[in-house]
Structures are given as C-alpha cells and as structure tokens.
Design brief:
By secondary structure, the protein is an all-alpha fold. 71% of the residues lie in helices and 0% in strands.
Length: 449
Amino acid sequence: MTVHDHSPKSRVQPASAKTSSSAELTNIPGVMRASDLFKIKLAANDGPERWIEKINGTVAERLDAHIHFTNPYKMEQESKQIYEDLLKLRPIEREWQPLYQLYVSYGLLNYLTDIAKEQTISQELLERAYASFLFYLVEEAGEAAEEIGIHALPFQFDPYIHFLREDAVSLLSSDKLLFFNQRIDLYRQLWTSLFKREAWRKEERRRLQSLLIEKKNATALSAGYLHQLYLANDLEGFRTAAKRMPAIGIELYVAWMSDSIRLKQPDKARLLVKTIDQHLESYLHQLANEGTMQVRRFVHYFLTHIDTEWLADQEPSLYQSLLEKMLPYSYTDLSLYLLQSHRYEEWAELALWMDSDLAELEREGLKEAAKAAPAEVLPIYHHGIVRLINERNRPGYKKAVRYLKKLRTLYKKLKQLDRWELYLHQLLEEHKRLRAFQEECRKGQLIHA
C-alpha cells in the first residue's frame, strides 16, 4: 500500500527552485518513486495477480531490454540482481516464502522469454548468454515447488496455485521462440511436484489435446502433452503420441527415463530406453551439423544423467546399442562394459576400430583381458606393434620390442610357438631395412646376432 506523506517536505516546490521534473513529481503528495515502491514487501493476501504485476513491473523498470539486449551478458547480470532484490520482498510469513520464490522464478523466466522474441540479436548468442541463468531459475522454482508440494496445500494458497496452474501452459506457447529446454523443464517441475491432483492433470491433458488439434506441429505443446501422459502412466498413449509428434529432443526422454529409474518404475523406464534408442541416431546426426562439441556435450549429459548400472543389468542389449550409436564419444563406457561382461572378442574389435594405443589399452584392462582370453587380444598386439614400428624412431622400436616379448608369452601360453616364429619372421622380413629396429630386436634377444 502506498504511504501518503503530507509533511511540508512533500509539498510542491516553487517554480523558481532548480529541481528536475521527476523530482517535482515525487514531491506531490501521494506520489512515490518506483525505487521506493520496490522496497515495500508484498503481503501474503495481496493475491497472485498483484504478485505477478509487482514482479513484471519491477523487471520492466529495472531492465531496459532495448539497450541491454545489445549486450545479453550484461542483461543476464542485471537479471540476476533483479532476482535477488525481488526475493528480499518476500512476505514476512514463513509458510508463504517458498510460494513467493516460486512466483518470482516463474515470473522472471516468463518475462525474459517473452521479451527475447522481440530482439534482433542472434538467437544463438541469446541462448548462450542466458541459458545457465534460466536453468538456475528453473532449479529455484523446482526447489520451491517441491517444498510446497510435500505438504498439504493450505486453502489460502488456492488462488495462487490456481493462477499458476492456469498460466503454466503459457510456457508451451508457440509464440515463445527461444529457451525451449528451460520452459519445458519448468513446466515439468510444476506438474510433477506441485499440481498432483488427478483431476487437475486430466483437465490439463484435455486442454493440451485441444490445443494440439489447432496447432499440430507445436513442439512445446507436444512435449507438455507427453509429460501429462507420462504422469498418468498411460504408456500406450505415450508410445503412440511419441511416434506421431514432432521431434522434441532426446534430453526430455533422458530426463523421463532417469526419473522412472529413480522412482523404481521399470515399465516406464524400458519404454523410454526403447524410444531413445529409436531416435538417437537421427538426433546425433542433427547435432553433428552444429559441430562435434555439441555431440560430445550431449553424450556427456546422457551418460551422467542415467543409471548406467540399472541399464546394463536390466536392458543390456539396449544399453550396448545406445553406447555403440554414441561412438566414439562413448568409447570409455562401452569398453568398460564389454570388459566387465567378459566379452573380450568384442572388446578387442572395439579397440582395433578406435586404433587405440597399447599403453592406453594396458591402463584400460588389456593385461586382465590377456590373462582371461589370450587368443582374443592377439590382434590388438599385432596392430599396436606395427603402429610403434611405423613411428620410425628408436623409442618406438624399443616399445615395440617390449610388446613383442609380451606377445611371445601369449603365444607360448596358447602353445602356438610355431605361429609365433612365423609371425616374427614375417615381421622382421617386412622391416628388414629398419636397422635400428633390427638392432633393438637383437638387444631384446628376439633374434640372435
């Protein structure tokens, strides 16, 4: 509520006074500076519309989008400060503070995604400058939603929850062109942690179905609808919808799969693994057009956000299929999986395909594989030794001789010394002009003077 100041200081100064027009306005009884209004804490009973109005008004006053969007990094810094300042206006009542934090996070993200579409600066630069801050807002909103959602909702919260529930669909608007992942993540957080009543979710599914009939290729709406089917445990509906809807990005399926594994919902998790496997190759090809760094980032994201132990144990063939599709960036994980599964022949084929260095392979498990399956690793040694000889230098020759001795031990273990003699003879004959190599072989007592 605006405080009216009728003290002498607040009266209009004489025209002769050298004051600015803005100063004159603020001296009129009942008129306050926006910066002074900003300092007034919001009350719990102000209502959701008043809260959103306050948030939007503050951002609009503090953030000159036309100027700041020419330097989006500066705008991000200013937005962070606005967020911190808005949080200081939280209601005094402790039980209302998480709800207010949710409103500030939600309101600021919505405001920024709305004004972003009006800018002429490149979308790529905007995404790069703002992505981390908007994900931070999503995390803040998610934490608040979870804190509110673990308790029975007080009836005083009803209008605030109703407002957010009705307004959340705006996050899926096709008018918003940027920050798809952040908007979808926030929508998912709200409907997973806060809007839990089946009647609410059923109503939302119907609403999204109607909107999708009007806008058939709306990617964000499709993602929202899939999330509602996921929450309803409608696996058949989810499977059918996922096939006919536009590509929404593998990251969403990964998030759903991760949640399903964490919540011990194996049927959901299996469906999502299969869906990911079906879409992964085309998605990686699409990412590759943007550069290998994008593919590398996605693979890192994927392998750190899924329960690989569960996948390897419950869906081993699918897990291997996923890793093979993500090669070469998933090499370490696939190599470890094959070794732990004692599938040494496949492991050796992978190592050869990757053209791996023998020293590196020894660190990854070559010694253990050689003990368990010596015949399977012979090609690895053959290939690695030739690589070292082809370096055409003395250190390379010395390493080659060291591995030749290990190779001889393997042939001896296999009782195939005749094959060893034939192999060594052919190798020496092929490189007979490399005197330094021949000399190292004599020093290593592989051949006699």
